[in-house]
């Protein structure tokens, strides 16, 4: 199934894109994500994109949300630039590998990978309970290890169209002792670099539906500052619990789609 080209958005399609952007901005700012975990399945399930096109388009849509999110978290002193830089360096390398894999794996394989990604995220959200006052202690060894870990979100960015924050945030909290807010803000800084790198490559490959991406991304960017303020007010446990339920709903829809014999497997 091919993506719609939207030479001139129909009213219904445009409203859907605004809705997708609003929800992505809400959850992206609230949980420190670019919003790809919402954008990709929405493009597939609601807009008729295949998994490859949805992932590629999402990389461009993530950029406005991530920029707004970093600014908003930064105003609360919740962005560790050394952590974000280390993750970004690893993410650039990971994005190169993910982009190559995106063109070689089948659509069915990409959809199963995305489902596994969602299930892993749900588990991590219940295993890792953030501590609001915690602080990451930076050293040369920690910086290098963060670069190495950044490869994983980089691959996820290009391959699955998600920012990788859903993986990076629990690891920063549980593995490096960061607070939940600092982990979210620093993760979004990483997403800016990763989404830019991946989007450029996908645009060159003509996999990105630019107007779709910009409509979603700019809408999400307008919502993000308000959802970041909500994140500051919400307890870490409630934040994790709500997001895990939301991801479970998305995972269920994907599983139903994958089990249908008519699912697109090109």
From TrEMBL:
Location(s) in or outside the cell: Cell membrane; Membrane
InterPro entries cross-referenced by the UniProt entry: TM_pro_TauE-like (IPR002781), TSUP/Inactive_protease-like (IPR051598)
Sorted alphabetically, the keyword list is: Cell membrane, Membrane, Transmembrane, Transmembrane helix
In what way does this protein cross or attach to the membrane?
Answer: Multi-pass membrane protein
Q: Where are the transmembrane segments?
A: 20-47, 81-98, 110-128, 134-152, 237-255
The answer to whether keyword DNA-binding applies is no
Question: A Pfam family matched by this chain, by name?
Answer: TauE
Q: Record's Gene Ontology CC terms?
A: plasma membrane
Broad class of the protein's primary localization: membrane
Q: Which domain of life is it from?
A: Bacteria
Which family does the record assign? Belongs to the 4-toluene sulfonate uptake permease (TSUP) (TC 2.A.102) family.
Name of the protein in its database record = Probable membrane transporter protein
| Biological source species | Canibacter oris
